[in-house]
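A sample follows:
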Amino acid sequence: MFLTQALVLLGTLSSQPDPATTRALVVLLDISGSMGIDDAGKSRLVRGCDLIKELARANPPGRESPILLVTFNNSANQASVIQGMDDLERHLKALRP
């Protein structure tokens, strides 16, 4: 059910991109309490966010290539459509385990 809601969210972008050329990257990020564990110099959440930023730099989010960031702990919490690096940074900074 949540995947359906996430796909609907992707479909509600303010200006509809061309479906023939649009590709969305879906990223799932665990924000449960265990992600606060520091077991390699940084918390697991910080390392996960670093990997997402690295992925986004290689595949910059935009109108034709948004990132759908889905956070979860016991169940899906939030789905956000990301269309730029500033937007991604803002979303990732707000996350807490």
